[in-house]
Design goal:
Helices cover about 70% and strands about 5% of the residues. The chain is built from 7 helices and 2 strands; from the N terminus they run H-H-H-H-H-H-H-E-E. Strand 1 and strand 2 form a beta hairpin.
């Protein structure tokens, strides 16, 4: 299964010029995270996972994307080798990460694109920092007011036997 996932993600990575696959063009980076998770929990064959990660790394490098390679394998290394207590800020970002994912494009990218018209290029880094802070703040509010309440509500749903029958606890 891991071999097929690896080969498919490499195929999608190199065919990202095709419109139908452009949505999946970053799949190869998610597969790196999946393989890291498999290493962490000793899931699957160690050598298949190792060969998969080497093939993916090599395919990113031969594509000339050094920055993507470094960032992906930094994340992989953290997943596999970091065994100390996670700092509070990192844990906080992890908690709100789904909200950041949902908010960053409509808010951050649009804010930066609109503001670039009215801000001189010397202040782009300030604009980036302000956008980052705004995204974190809005994501925290989104997490507290929307994501957490819906997670609590979904925990009251229980599935028994036949998945067509859903019981909701009151």
């Amino acid at each position: 299964m891991m071999v097929l996932l690896t080969l498919f993600s490499i195929f999608i990575y190199y065919s990202n010029m095709l419109v139908i696959f452009s949505f999946f063009s970053y799949m190869i980076f998610f597969v790196i995270g999946i393989i890291g998770f498999f290493f962490l929990l000793n899931i699957g064959n160690f050598y298949v996972n190792l060969i998969s990660i080497v093939i993916i790394g090599f395919s990113i490098l031969i594509n000339g994307q050094i920055a993507e390679f470094v960032s992906a394998f930094f994340a992989f290394s953290v997943i596999v080798f970091y065994d100390k207590k996670i700092p509070k800020f990192v844990n906080f970002i992890g908690e709100i990460s789904y909200s950041v994912y949902l908010i960053h494009f409509p808010l951050g990218v649009k804010l930066i694109n609109l503001s670039k018209r009215y801000v001189i290029s010397d202040l782009y880094i300030v604009l980036f920092i302000l956008s980052f802070i705004l995204i974190i703040l809005v994501s925290k509010i989104f997490y507290e007011k929307i994501e957490k309440p819906f997670a609590r509500m979904s925990s009251r749903i229980s599935y028994r036997g036949d998945f067509r029958m859903v019981n909701i606890k009151s």
